[in-house]
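Why do we care about 3D structure at all? Because function follows from shape, and shape follows, mostly, from sequence. That is the central idea of this module. The next example makes it concrete: a single protein chain, its amino acid sequence, and then its structure expressed as tokens.
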Amino acid sequence: MLELLMVPAIIRTECGFVVGGRKALCVLLYRLAFPCRLKDMRLVLGLSESCICETFNWMLHFNGLQVGLRTFAEAVYNKGCPLTHCWAFIDGTVRGIARPIRNERFFYNGYKRKHAIKFQGVVTPDGLFVDLYGAEVGTRHDRYLLAQSALLEKLQTHMNSPSGHPYCLYGDPAYGQTDHIQCPFSASVNAPLTPAIRNFNKSMSQCRVTVEWGFKEMTSKWAFVDMKCQQKFLLSPVATQYKVATLLSNFHSCLNGGNQISQYFGVEPPTLEEYLKV
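And the structure:
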């Protein structure tokens, strides 16, 4: 993994700490895997608390950690979904944070009843996140995240078949209906719902839930980002921690031949070597 990620043999932090590349990667993985105290990590890694903190932040911002429509669409269709050109699923997630000392009301999500930040993710049938946007404050709507991410413009430019037919994402009603994003039929707009429409909504819902599996699987692997009291948005790079944990979750799926989502759709993820070449 060190070679694939191109982690240097020796890293030097802003405060002058010099750490071997292998140990720096261990610091990143250890810190994200479980919420533990720096003093406990010091005993395991043999580094000072200041060095561990600096190394963790250096690895979070390390540039080496960056990242077939038809196959995905066929996998979704074969699971009983009526859409023939749906290749992935989109959803937002609300991540709890510690209560901020400033601008508290901007972070408070009344629906979830907690201070939070929001991310938008896109998951493909091979179980990988192919797009993750955030963070925005917890009061923002999913449509706002969609607009700010410029994802729709990317879809319109790149996600079309050779014949010009659009490949689409499927999400909840908050995203609205476009050529490249589909959502369930709403009873308030399409009432009364016919049996065919109800069956469509039910079939697509059974597959759309996989994007929620993706968020859950990531936080189960990297429990640190799910520990609300540790997510101090104004003090730590909370958004970067979440993005790096998501990327590491993709790595884990590639190394282990898939996850719950890929098994559900019967699509194997690429190898780690193939993934990092993309």
